Amino acid sequence: MAGWSAARIIPDQTGRVAVVTGANSGLGYVTARELARKGAHVVLGCRSEVRGREAGRRLGEEVPGADVELLRLDLGDLGSVREFAAAYRHERLDLLVNNAGVMALPYGTTADGFETQFGVNHLGHFALTGLLLPALLATPDARVVTVSSMAHLLANIDLRDLNSERRYRRWVAYARSKSANLLFVHELTRRLEASYAEVTAAAAHPGYAATNLQAAGPRASGSRFGERVVELGNRVLAQSAEGGALPVLYAATAPGVRPDSFTGPSFAAWRGTGTPAPSPRAPWTLDDRAGELLWAASERLTGVTYDSGF
């Protein structure tokens, strides 16, 4: 086989409902488009309604007859996360793709006072997953796919300073948020298995894919030089958003995806159009005790408590 092709290999998704966060651009847009191409009803979770409507229009042009709807979702505002969950009108949820994220921003806080990268990348998705859990549990063979990064290898979470209040280093904070993503998947898997729930939690990453994510940090810092470096890297070294989305789509739809797996590109976990493959993973993202402690802190910080019995 020449490689894993989203167009050829994704199973039929007719009758299935998917939520994709950050669906207006990059990996999220490609993921939503390909799920819709295979017949899924896709809910586009977008922070900007204007950009979300534009994405929906473009998606409809690329996939005539696509079955999509737009719901506003700002993962940096827990009020918005709750509004999204309340507006979700379907009794079932076959697939939740926790894709949206921010990278290496200058220090800032969310609407609820959390460090931005930890708040958006982890806490927002933790809350969203918990609020949508009843629909997931009501759907046989549902999946939750959380998008992490190989950058998680740069830093473990600091349970004593989850919001980087003692010292802020933008890339360390990003790496910690991506470690939190993987630790969340690990702990969610343990809890789902303990309750015999028919939901699979898995993680994926795009390798180095050219999206607007990389330029956001330099732009927010006012660094034109940084933006140019990112633009050059994206042009010379990165793969396309289509290539980066393949591991996410694989984790979301391929038969036999294992719980708590971490899927990435086939070539050195960096890029590749072959079948996505298991990626290296830091041991701290498989630490049961750390998973329990992060979970407890996340429930306390977000106010979203998962049903202990599922």
From TrEMBL:
Family: Belongs to the short-chain dehydrogenases/reductases (SDR) family.
UniProt-listed Pfam families: adh_short (PF00106)
Keyword Oxidoreductase: yes
Domain of life of the organism encoding this protein: Bacteria
Name of this chain's protein: Oxidoreductase
Keyword Oxidoreductase: yes
Keyword field: Oxidoreductase
